[in-house]
Design goal:
Chain lengths: ~110, ~120
Amino acid sequence: DIQLTQSPSFLSASVGDRVTITCRASQDISNYLAWYQQKPGKSPKLLIYAASTLQSGVSSRFSGTGSGTEFTLTVNSLQPEDFATYFCQQVNNYPRTFGQGTKVEIK
Amino acid sequence: EVQFLESGGDLVQPGGSLRLSCAASGFTFSDFVMSWVRQAPGKGLEWVSSISSSGAYTYYADSVKGRFTVSRDNSKNTLYLQMDSLRAEDTAVYYCAKDTVVFEGANDSWGQGTLVTVSS
């Protein structure tokens, strides 16, 4: 099975900051990676698919890069509504796996 | 508008069974791969199972293989998860989710979740 490791697990930032979250895969997954945002008590929301394609309706503050085994999610000019937990997911093959999550909190 | 109505979550004893349902609307259900994803209290997301658009192909996480069965009824626009031999570690909120049109695997729409609690 493909393992995904996110870093950091926890991130403290201020409104207006630029934050970057990394997701590393245990083997080459090409660009078969998605990023989700989840707020407490809510369902996950798709932000990015195919490693770098912004989902319709998602703010352009969010961007994704990477291929192979290393991927990043960047949030530019962090807004109050961006404080949440972020997960990566590989969809290269089954079983589909998620990273352990990165919680972004207000400094 | 894509909508899901999940049901079936409950408190069940270890070794027991439950069937979750996810009624879909707002899109052509029979065109899409559907999945179940769960989240234990205070934990991350765990992919559980997926089923092809026709229902011919099913996939499971190792943690549930042989105990859970995913199915769908395209005439009723409904996804199911039959859960047998339940364990305490199956306690979680279970979400149904739909794959995107353009990138199979990424889930662009999610249900609200239904809570399964396995405890004596």
